[in-house]
Write a structure and sequence with these properties.
The complex is a heterodimer of chains A (137) and B (259).
Chain A: H1 2-18, H2 23-32, H3 35-42, H4 49-53, E1 60-67, E2 70-77, H5 93-108, E3 118-122, E4 125-126
Antiparallel strand pairs in A: 1-2, 1-3, 3-4
Helix pairs in contact in A: 2-3
Chain B: H1 2-31, H2 38-49, H3 53-65, H4 73-85, H5 89-100, H6 107-121, H7 128-152, H8 166-221
Helix pairs in contact in B: 1-3, 3-4, 4-5, 5-6, 5-7, 6-7, 6-8, 7-8
The chains are: A alpha+beta (137), B mainly alpha (259).
């Protein structure tokens, strides 16, 4: 009985740790995001950001806006787009990004924040602040 | 004849694909400072002469940057303008890019063209990157504008840029950000609505399947083979008194007492 309990506990711990945010990502996120947005970003519970990131073939985008008037953040996953139909068909990042930015902008409008919403991360790849030079196409 | 048509379609599809691939490859060779081969150059020339939009756009970039050609910004701008009118997305972005670097350009016009590109391609999977870049270019443009206005006061800007007040500039920037926000929210709502429509369709199909299954189960109960009738009670009468026993009445089979 005790062994069964221990196995179940270790299985549960493994599942939880699988959804945990890598330490270096946590540190980077903590430097940029407000405490509340950081908590949202590192939340590994069911259907929250980190759990969605650790799903197979995940596509989740985290967006945020912050200035002296406050902060907002929002995210969206491929499941929030019509291109996702439960199969392995490719969902473009663009659709996920648009939904996440749209949710963030929607929230921002209810506040006095003037800074626009920006993409913070695609899955656990923090792209905020890594802007490339905009060149002729 | 059928085989010939199939072959023609196959060759057509294959050739279109290979041509598109060639342009992207040639573009990489010319723009990444690697040395183009004679074949690259001849393909580039042939493409430009035959009016290939991708290669003509590349020519515009090379002219603007003065790579492999003498620098000619005016000619580059003409090329981007012509291709933009032909609805070539990359050139539309390039035209906006060129205008955003020009101190003699009206900021309102630059704002409009950047917002236009952002709105046009935000829900276009193939050209979404242009929408995103137009937004970023706009933000960079507004960040750099105060410095350029300041510098313009000491140089020969033909436009009224030097007279642009900080209030007007702030207002332009605010309108640009509001435009970006509106476009983003609308695009997001469109995606969400499409998702809801899709779910509604799936729900409707599921409902039809359920109704079908229920109807089938009700209807199929009529076809359930009736239970075997109870065995004929033993008859102790004389055989001539048993008219139906062992007789076959096909139209009545299954009905109690007849089988």
């Amino acid at each position: 009985m005790k062994l069964k309990k221990a196995v179940l506990m270790s299985l549960f711990a493994t599942i939880l740790s699988a959804c945990a945010t890598p330490q270096h990502i946590k540190e980077q996120a903590a430097n940029v995001l407000s405490p509340a947005c950081y908590a949202t970003f590192t939340d590994g519970s069911l259907f929250h950001y980190q759990q969605l990131v650790h799903q197979f073939n995940a596509k989740v985008v985290f967006t945020f806006a912050t200035d002296e008037n406050g902060y907002v953040c929002a995210y969206a996953s491929k499941m929030d787009t019509p291109e996702f139909n439960g199969t392995l068909s490719e969902v473009p990042w663009s659709s996920v990004e648009t939904v996440a930015l749209s949710r963030c902008e929607d929230k921002r409008r209810t506040t006095k924040i003037n800074s626009p919403c920006e993409v913070f991360a695609r899955n656990n790849d923090i792209i905020w602040g890594k802007k490339e030079d905009i060149k002729l196409q | 004849m059928k085989k010939l048509t199939f072959l023609f379609v196959f060759i057509f599809l294959f050739s279109t694909h290979s041509f598109a691939r060639e342009c992207e490859e040639i573009k990489k060779v010319f723009l990444l400072d690697s040395k183009p081969t004679d074949q690259d150059i001849s393909e580039f020339k042939a493409g430009v002469e035959t009016g290939n939009q991708c290669l003509r756009n590349l020519m515009g970039i090379l002219l603007y940057e003065g790579k492999f050609f003498l620098k000619d910004e005016e000619e580059a701008r003409k090329i981007f303008y012509t291709l933009s009118n032909n609805n070539y997305p990359e050139s539309q972005f390039n035209l906006a890019w060129v205008l955003s670097k020009d101190d003699n350009q009206d900021p309102q016009m630059v704002t409009n063209i950047l917002l236009g590109i952002h709105a046009k391609y935000i829900d276009d999977k193939k050209n979404y990157h242009l929408s995103s870049k137009a937004k970023d270019l706009g933000r960079d443009y507004f960040k750099g504008l105060p410095n350029r206005i300041y510098n313009c006061k000491f140089s020969k800007c033909k436009s009224d840029l030097k007279d642009l007040s900080s209030d007007v500039l702030a207002n332009l920037n605010k309108n640009f950000e509001e435009g970006v926000s509106n476009v983003t929210i609308n695009a997001g709502q469109k995606i969400t609505a499409a998702l809801q429509d899709q779910k509604a369709t799936e729900d409707a199909i599921f409902a039809i399947l359920l109704i079908g299954a229920a109807t089938y189960s009700i209807a199929s109960s009529a076809y359930v083979r009736p239970a075997a009738p109870p065995s004929v009670p033993p008859c102790f009468c004389e055989p001539w008194m048993q008219p139906g026993y062992n007789w076959q009445f096909p139209h009545l089979s299954g009905v109690y007492g007849f089988y």
